[in-house]
Amino acid sequence: MKEYELVDITEPELFNRTFPHDLPPFFDFEKPVKESIDGREVEYDPASVLHRDIHLTDTTFRDGQQARPPYTTEQTVRIFEMLSRLGGKRGVVRQSEFFLYTKRDLKNVEACRNLGLDYPAITGWIRAQPGELRKVRDMQLKETGILTSCSDYHIFLKQAQTRREAMDRYLSVAGSALEAGIRPRCHLEDITRADIKGFVLPFVQALEKMSAGVPAGMKVKIRLCDTMGFGLPYPNVSEPRSIPKLIWRIREECGIEGNRLEWHGHNDFHRVHANGICAWLCGADALNTTLFGFGERTGNPPLEGALVEYVSLKRDLNGVNLPVITELARYYENTIGSPPPVNYPFTGRDFNTTRAGIHAGGLRKNERIYTVFDTNRLLNLPPKVSITDKSGTDGIALWVNEFLGLRGKNRVSRSRVAPIQRWVMNQYEKEGRNTAISEEELEEQVRINIPLLYAERVKSQAEDPGISSRP
Q: I want to staple 33 with a disulfide (CB 3.0 to 4.6 A). Which of 44, 124, 262, 342 is the partner?
């Protein structure tokens, strides 16, 4: 066993190359991963994401609508416009798919199209039935998803078909789409329970032969659908559950380039985000997502989480406008009435709120100790502290300084807020309180115990109404 000696230093090693703080933490890739498939040594190079055009697609208005009450047309248009600003002019949020079944669906598509936005491009979603393709043609959409279930659970037990019957029907509808000038995107439903060599690969190879001779922008796309969340992000797991193996086969044995390959996952086993990022790393350029993970049953990869991961992988914003994440979260909370859970990463009101005194002490000394990145700059959400009997004097001092807008040497000390801390503890120890102290109560204590600074704050707020009265 190798022994290690302490390396004593005078300056801290903060690993700034990995944790820049002004951006989410970076991925540092060391070497490609090797694995054996059918006796052949294959290699996965995760670092390829640095030069590939990885991006997000959105299914908030399709799969997301299967998990919640329908959005109104006004809500759909507002969310769509925010998605456009969130993904930026480079189209990091590249496409958004819509149902085409009801009058409301069609009205929503038309209203979003009337915004005249380049991104996200609007696409459709249909079952592999000739009659449904007419809906796509009537709406003059350039691309549509086609449900092409590929596991025997679906082919035999749901559709009551043989594999040949299912494959022939799928190929017929995809071919009709190409003839109509509509790009087909075949959704291989339940692929992580499918016979990869016996059905999936022959089907995808047939689709690729069908695409021969058509312009590159019209070639069939493939969406890999982990419908039940069975997929695993490990190369040495057996098929059909290994995402790295699955993507390697589709690319290398079927000739589907990464820019025509998309991952769509579900969160039944709490792996949806990790599996989606794995698909990016292993060669699928598109990751299908929904806002806040809303999706059928357990949900899909959360769009906002994937965007933060995108920035981490690319080490650059690339036009992504992350503060719109907070704008969307507040819109869902205040207008739609579906706020994210309060501690939900990046969007919950308390995701960067601490209640522990020791954490508040760390925040008071240096924000980087207990913040994942500069949440104020990137999400328009400064770190906060919620005051309870566990907050300590450090927590009180942090809250007061944020409330008063004090920085640097002007910040009040722990001793200055000691009377407020005593009042807080009396609430719990003598009054038997079991709820957090409200911001209104804390403001009143600042007025009583630090009157001069409080008066300055009130005066500043009167002169500039844009200054918030809350931290």
A: 44
